[in-house]
């Protein structure tokens, strides 16, 4: 019975907002509830002008035959990336904005945040789209990469003892071509397992802007010789999507590049991360890593890429069978057929489980996240949405509970994950360090939402942080498995945190249900292939595993 819900939620809710007095009976466990606390937590900015019209856009463009594609790049921004940039143990938040500068919110550790942008050299940086934290130079602190809209180059902000300096141009990471940028999401991973983090930068550009090459590029880190200096190896790796679209596009209203959310993820378990792309106009792609610096495009043969308008993505082992699955957020409407859930069947093949799982309709989708909302060991799903079209001006964000049988159940509004703004970026992080995952939502043209997870389920958890030595220091690509009561869960660091225009907290968070002890924790490192195992690990703690 869910009659316990209100009383349990009441006992843990903050003073800023009480939960609804009477939670109706619903499909979720008693005691699962989220409270929106952004303003109370000090996150009170607005993203800025939501829907600038032609003449006021940074990128004025018309994509025939539909005039509502004017300014579509401007209308697709608002991202967020979570990471503990100052190493104090509390996860911080960077938010991107278009007409206003981005903001670095430092987590004070008391449930609130403060804007420290000016104090760390990040003031005045506007025209932003996607963001990613990573230790690109392996020096022990986090740097920040931010993709741009309308500026001539992207930004690589190197962390010098807490002061950030844009060194993108000098380090080969700005992708300047003399033409305005139309950057989207940024994927970070070590695709050649040399222990240094590489970049793939997304780009949404149509030929109406002008006839010039896209900036959807693969940037390889030179590593030991020149740390955090990058070479564009897009063509050498065989991932030039311009060529693919020019040769094979069928649905695009104009020739262009439409990569909205790229990600690195080891989908076949061979220790090499694939390049996964959710892309607009039927252009989503899956490039298999061949282990020699090159990739193989088998998108359709592998059973993926059927989404008509791929926007965001979420990658996780939602069915707990030991491999990573791929959710694509897309558009549901009169001329569109919604999201996709591609279940990994092994042997580099996938099956479409969208309808079987009940996750097709998320309106005009953007950011999406797999996360365990109730720490029961099953991954739940949340996505945001909206667009400047009559049907989608007030799209409600959608979330589903995973009961563990492969069929997702849509959450009721009483759960508290409720917003009808123009959602774009969406991430999860445990900002208050209470052992459950909170949700941050970046709204285009409006104020963000911070959904504090106030659930009291009695379930336990384990968080595994990783630090590489042979592998990249951030441990991206490390595969973490936990076994409780004979059941195994898998999380791949990096792949599991990549989202539209940003990144969730890069930690392996596991709900372990009633278990107070985890039987086994196993970490497989990407560069060395080394496996480390730990037995009888106490639950309800943050565990740091350093590569031997």
Features:
mainly beta, single chain, 39 strands, 548 residues, 4% helix, 2 domains, Methylamine Dehydrogenase, Chain H, 4 helices, Immunoglobulin-like
N- and C-termini, Cα separation: 48 Å
Largest sheet properties: 8 strands, antiparallel
Q: Estimate the strand proportion.
A: 35-45%
Give the overall silhouette.
globular
Q: What is the share of helical residues?
A: under 10%
Mean pLDDT: 91
Fold blueprint:
Layout: H1 5-12, E1 34-36, E2 80-83, E3 92-95, E4 103-107, E5 113-115, E6 128-134, E7 143-148, E8 155-160, E9 163-166, E10 183-189, E11 198-206, E12 217-221, E13 230-232, H2 234-237, H3 241-248, E14 256-265, E15 274-279, E16 285-289, E17 295-297, E18 313-316, E19 325-328, E20 332-333, E21 336-337, E22 340-346, E23 349-352, H4 354-357, E24 365-371, E25 380-385, E26 398-401, E27 409-410, E28 423-429, E29 438-443, E30 449-453, E31 460-467, E32 479-484, E33 487-492, E34 498-499, E35 502-503, E36 508-513, E37 517-524, E38 531-538, E39 542-546
Summarize the structure.
Helix content is 4%, strand content 37%. By secondary structure, it is mostly beta strands. The protein has two domains: 5-453, YVTN repeat-like/Quinoprotein amine dehydrogenase (Methylamine Dehydrogenase, Chain H), CATH 2.130.10; 460-546, Immunoglobulin-like (Sandwich), CATH 2.60.40.
